[in-house]
Amino acid sequence: MTTHGGFEPVFCTIVPPHVLDKLAQHEDPALAGPARETLERDAYERTHRRLTTVLGAPTLAAPTETDKPRRTIYDAKHKQDLPGKKVRAEGSDPGKDATVNRAYAGLGATFELYLNAFNRHSIDGEGLPLNASVHYDVKYDNAFWNGEQMVFGDGDGELFLDFTIPVDVIGHELTHGVTQYTANLTYFGQSGALNESISDVFGSLIKQYSLGQTAAEADWLIGAGLLAPRVTGVALRSMKAPGTAYDDDALGKDPQPATMDGFIKTGRDNGGVHLNSGIPNHAFYLVADALGGHAWEKAGQIWYDVLTGGELKKDALFTDFATLTVAAAKTRFGDGGEELQAVQKAWEQVGVPTS
Predict the structure, then answer these.
(1) N or C: which end of the chain has fewer CB within 10 A?
(2) Residue 184 pLDDT more than 50?
(3) Which pLDDT band, with edges at 50, 70 and 90, does 32 fall under?
(4) Which residues carry out catalysis?
(5) How many helices (H) and strands (E) does the chain have?
(6) What is the pLDDT of residues 291-323, one digit of tens each?
(7) Residue 305 Cα distances to 2, 67, 188, 258, 297, angstroms
């Protein structure tokens, strides 16, 4: 396990603050109310996350068989106390609650991708148990990793549906845990955008792996199936075409840039971590698309090598990450291969230097 100077106090949600901020100002209380309450709850959880980092999270015993997951699902019963009532343990049969079953399956899909594709035993590399709470709070419009476990809201039913529906959302949030235990990227500015992008990358790969999809078959969407029918949009983000995931009266228009020409300078959203992540997201898509086949085998391996290699600085810029992907492609696949060319061309297309 590679860590850099202790864990950052990162609290990461799948729905970006700028989306909830806009909804909180909506004239319809059915839309504004849940958004405001979600923002308030997120602020509390963010503070709790910082305290957990300072005081230290509880120590959890690793399972004896690190090549098998150890999942536990809890039902928060629409309250805010975590974890809630234990409703499903590892190896038990599916119950009647589809949300519980989806959470259990999503934790398993994440474990399998990391084990089978990258020989990583759970998110910490040492068999960390995977815990999740479902039915969190009332009409809670988010899902998050709090440094210890996954938490899923049911959505408000107006704009967002159950947050266990997209497996890539589960994979995205758990990958924040992988980053926490490896490069530990600072959650601000370009390093924060890389943190978010890495979660999108591996969240998408988890979805593709579970469906047996090639890069050409994948939709490259993050959160497909999460938006309610009334929303004009297909997902929260698109890696293939950043800025096109939604264009809705209530949510606004997807603001993600695909290249450095559209880089957003802002003090909000931790320096635009959910916005500018579209740039490295698009670079990864371009690499995977150019190489074809299963994206986790080449493009994903290069990104994983950089994340876990020990050379990625906590405050890395896009160009730092890009340069390391070039080096990783050379190391794993050689100087003259299509992999190196694909990586170099992708970063060039999004406007990020690799030297």
Answers:
(1) C
(2) yes
(3) confident
(4) 173, 274
(5) 10, 10
(6) 999 999 999 999 999 999 999 999 999 999 999
(7) 12, 20, 22, 24, 12
